[in-house]
Specification:
The complex is a heterodimer of chains A (113) and B (497).
Chain A lengths: L1 H8 L9 H47 L5 H22 L10 H9 L2
Helix pairs in contact in A: 2-3, 2-4
Chain B lengths: L1 H11 L2 H19 L5 H9 L7 H26 L8 H50 L3 H13 L1 H4 L4 H16 L1 E2 L6 E2 L13 H18 L22 H6 L1 H16 L5 H15 L11 H25 L5 H12 L6 H6 L1 H32 L5 H20 L2 H19 L5 H23 L11 H19 L1 H7 L1
Antiparallel strand pairs in B: 1-2
Helix pairs in contact in B: 1-16, 2-3, 2-4, 2-16, 3-4, 3-14, 4-5, 4-13, 4-14, 4-16, 5-11, 5-13, 5-16, 6-19, 6-20, 8-19, 9-17, 9-18, 9-19, 11-12, 11-13, 12-13, 17-18
The chains are: A mainly alpha (113), B mainly alpha (497).
Chain lengths: 113, 497
């Protein structure tokens, strides 16, 4: 019923987006795409370079892709966040995160067994 | 019996038990609030701390965490729109809308009062009616379970907002997802694409985290850069206390919802999530202005919160009286009993009344402590999170989701699944397809299918078994009504879309 009635009501033509709107849309799509890419890379890379390093890089990359530009935030947060997450989940709750391969495994072992 | 209660009060109110309840409650609040950690996981994580504690102290901590978990899921739901628990999804729908309209404190008060009320209501029911509820739940065979899941899924129709078609689309998508994996009865593989990743099916935690939390972050990534996550204007809690008249006018709701919650919680396999959705849907159905649901309907919020907390008492009742888990989280508690050398079940009440009555009292006190803890500590804690730079906050949520999804089965494959669900959820939200029905369908789909097939096995292939038993007829009728009713009230719904 609803479909038929809406067809009867007639389709209203939608105006083409102005250049300003188009640019804004493209910008938004780019931000979302970047953040998706960050998450994807984080997941892909974790078994290779270990949880600690990949989390550290992720925080940095994700913040940048969302548009964060403040230097102090970008500099300090990766350390803080990684430290907290590792402390709570790896030490306290001992979830066995991926340690990574080769030299990265050694690096991870500095933080947890 | 009176002396048992006196004894239990005396024990539970010892300092170490009070401390245990506070710590457990806080932990529960945190676990419930974070989307990457489910309440069940929170209980499991807490178990290892309770090895060395005395049984009563251990259970004080665990039941406090249980109640806290169900409560905590709603704080981030209201403030940030991110459900910490599947049972908080209706709270996200209504509470977060209210928050976006500037009434965050109001929503928080309503949620808190209703949650604690629901919790305490169910504790009294638990105390008084343990044998009665057990007897009723025992009469639920596979056909009744199937009917219950059909009812739960048809409640979807009233949650779909504008378009019932999209709601059912989402629901069937969720049902499809539930079929992925190994067939429960014959062991055949379905939709596994010859990989091992999907052999165990799609864990609903992975799907929930992806569809709701990850996709929400992606959606919010579109917004222009915000320094701090201050979208929720928050007046002081004192300014927005809900008036007594609100509760008086909702008296029917406040009686109905905890009852629904307790009964649903008592059903083995059905827990806080179904309770919340069922109560929410019932209120939506009975409301005189259904179109405000989805945009901040206080009565919907009240129903959902009363019911999901009330399910705790129902689940614990079944656990204590029958030894059956009333919900996922209660299943973890069975482990706690074993650890302390106790056998949950009918004999426990006579063999160790101190434990059982102690748990009754502990649940009562936990709810009261939670009221205080949440109001003074919990909410403030989450508000401080507002001060975090927003980009970091989003990154932390993502990481928590990743940790949660990974920690479930120590599998990086689950993380890929979670990512895919994040993208799918983003697409769904862009097309205005509601995500909640898909999640509910995924949760219920397994149970529904098993129940259906067991029923058919019982009846040697005769489908009439599904509609030949009184309880299942009632439930299925409810399902039919809930689908047909919005269609009959067509004019109002059509105006929406």
């Amino acid at each position: 019923m609803t479909v038929v009635e809406s067809r009867k009501a007639g389709e209203k033509p939608v105006a083409a987006p102005t250049p300003g709107e188009a640019a804004a849309t493209w910008d938004r799509r780019r931000k979302v795409g970047l953040s998706m890419l960050c998450l994807f890379l984080y997941i892909v890379v974790m078994p290779w370079i270990g949880f600690v390093l990949s989390t550290f890089l992720f925080v940095f990359a994700f913040a940048v892709s969302l548009g964060e530009r403040r230097k102090w935030v970008l500099a300090v947060s990766p350390f803080l966040v990684t430290a907290m997450v590792v402390a709570v989940f790896a030490k306290f709750i001992t979830i066995p995160f991926p340690r990574g391969v080769g030299v990265f495994a050694a690096f991870s072992r500095i933080f947890y067994q | 019996m009176i002396e048992h209660y006196l004894q239990a009060f005396a024990t539970v109110l010892l300092p170490q038990n009070i401390l245990a309840m506070c710590l457990g409650g806080l932990w529960g609040l945190l676990a419930g609030a974070l989307p990457g950690i489910s309440t069940s996981m929170g209980i499991v994580l807490l178990l290892s701390f309770t090895y060395t504690l005395s049984p009563v102290t251990a259970f004080c901590m665990l039941v406090a965490a249980y109640c806290g978990g169900i409560t905590g899921g709603s704080i981030t739901s209201i403030l940030f729109g991110i459900p910490g628990e599947p049972s908080s999804v209706p709270t996200v729908i209504e509470g977060h809308s209210l928050a976006k309209q500037g009434h965050a404190a109001y929503a928080l008060w309503v949620f808190l009062i209703c949650s604690i009320y629901g919790g305490i209501f169910s504790v009294f029911v638990m105390m008084a009616a343990t044998p009665l509820i057990a007897g009723f739940a025992l009469r639920f065979g596979p056909p009744e379970f199937f009917a219950l899941t059909v009812l739960g899924l048809s409640v979807v129709s009233s949650l779909s907002g504008k378009s019932m078609v999209k709601g059912f689309l989402s629901c069937f998508f969720g049902l499809f997802l539930a079929t992925v994996g190994t067939d429960g009865i014959t062991g055949g593989e379905r939709f596994t694409f010859d990989t091992t990743i999907l052999l165990g099916g799609i864990s609903f935690v992975v799907a929930m985290v992806g569809l709701l939390a990850i996709s929400e972050i992606f959606i919010e990534a579109e917004e222009p850069f915000k320094e701090y996550k201050g979208i929720v204007k928050y007046k002081s809690m004192r300014d927005e206390m809900p008036p007594l008249s609100l509760f008086k006018s909702q008296w029917a709701n406040l009686i109905r919802s905890p009852i629904i919650g307790t009964i649903v919680g008592a059903l083995p396999g059905a827990g806080a999530t179904i309770a919340a959705f069922l109560a929410y849907g019932t209120t939506a159905r009975m409301s005189k202005n259904p179109e405000k649901f989805g945009k901040g309907a206080v009565d919907g919020l009240m129903s959902a919160e009363c019911a999901n907390n009330a399910s705790t008492g129902g689940s614990m009742t079944i656990l204590l009286s029958l030894g059956l888990p009333g919900s996922n989280t209660t299943a973890m508690m069975i482990a706690a009993f074993m650890i302390h050398g106790l056998q949950p079940g009918p004999l426990l009440l006579t063999a160790r009344p101190d434990i059982v009555y102690g748990i009754f009292v502990a649940m009562l006190m936990s709810n009261l402590f939670l009221l205080v803890l949440t109001a003074f500590v919990g909410i403030r804690l989450f508000l401080e999170l507002n001060r975090l730079p927003y980009s970091i906050f989003s990154a932390v949520i993502m990481i928590l989701c990743v940790v949660g999804a990974f920690g479930l089965a120590n599998s990086t494959d689950d993380l890929f699944l979670m990512f895919i669900f994040g993208v799918v959820g983003y697409a769904m939200m862009k097309f205005n397809i509601p995500v909640a029905p898909a999640i509910l369908a995924l949760v219920l789909g397994d149970m529904a299918e098993l129940a259906l097939r067991r029923s058919l096995i019982l009846s040697m292939g005769d489908p009439m078994i599904l509609i030949s038993r009184p309880i299942s007829i009632v439930l299925l009728l409810g399902a039919v009504i809930s689908i047909a009713y919005p269609l009959i009230k067509k004019p109002k719904i059509l105006q929406g879309g």
